[in-house]
Amino acid sequence: MKKFKPNKITTFMFAMIEILSPFSVGIPLMILLIGKENYTTNDILCVFLAFLLMLVLIVVFCCLLNVLTLPFTKYTVFLFDDHFSRGDTKVKYDDITEIEIDSGLISRTGGNEPCCLDCYSGNELLISIEHPSLLMIFFLIRRCRNAKLRYKRVKKLILLWSLCLIISVVLGLYGAQ
Predict the structure, then answer these.
(1) Which residues contact 67 (CB under 8 A, 6 or more apart)?
(2) pLDDT tens figures, 102-126
(3) Do 48 and 24 form a contact (C-beta atoms < 8 A)?
(4) What pTM, to 2 d.p., does this model score?
(5) Cβ contacts of 135 within 8 Å, gap of 6 or more
């Protein structure tokens, strides 16, 4: 049996990754478009690797912040060999056909939504786990081998990537002149 506590920082971590990940491609693309005479391939590669390192450091920082809150939270999810439970709800791994990860929403006006992990059997919602632990997500995905994995806010992610890449191309072409 494995016990997991809620991770209240996952929503913030996903928001930072969603916002900063397009820049790991956009900034090197902008530098490439500005001109090869100004920057070498090594410079562009270093910028790309720096942004990837920054993303990893954000995940590590959020995990360290979560470690600070662990003594003050109780275990909520228990993973067993053939099922997992949260409160009075028990779900068998074989019953799950789809796992949906919702990264949550941090809003300035107060319409915040926490990070959620939803497990479905067909069209029926079996369980929804708010503030899931990252390790619990990985273990649950690994144990539910037949389940499809979906990311709920794909449209928002595509919009952020598109805007960042368009702005990077425009700035890169403008800077090349």
Answers:
(1) none
(2) 998 888 887 888 999 999 998 999 9
(3) yes
(4) 0.83
(5) 4
